[in-house]
Amino acid sequence: MSDTDAKDMAYADIIADLPLERHDAGEGRAIWCASQFVPVGWLTQERRYLTLKTSIEDTFQWMNRGVVSSKGSNTIDTVRGIAKNGQTFFTIEHTKGLRAWAVGDADAIMDLLTRIQGVGVKTRIGFGSLLPYENGDLWKITEVADDQCHWQRRASPCKLIEDSYHAVGSWQSPYWQGHDRIWRPAPMRLPAS
What we know:
Distance between the termini: 49 Å
Low-confidence stretches: none
Strand order of the largest sheet: 1-2
């Protein structure tokens, strides 16, 4: 078993018993009653530049396909040429906050949320940091009426809301490994309240 498989199994154990209700999506599939995060009080977008090491594995695949010449050796020169480094541009959004909806045990959900200090794939380099409320908390849970709880705004194997479209992704954890045909809600931004 690879390290990645072991990490995925450990992750699966952690999320196996979340304090959320489940919705029957048919065909023996159950999804968590929790939405994706929606930006609140959108301010602006900004493009950023990032340098990174070029993936050695990708370079070996390019060499095997004949796209990159190995020049008679099986080594990759990481000092010059294509393997020197990679570069990418990415977009960040500035918002006043995020909102999500869930159905479950509010105290247990808050306990889990207190462990989250940032949101997104680039939190390790400071993006997605959360600013605290006046009392110092990073998260706030507010009870809403059933008709205001939009937990269906999430990826799903079935169409939960009209405002959704077909996509390729994942409707269950681990979400970053998704290759299924799913229904995804159309992007939405909420005004600051």
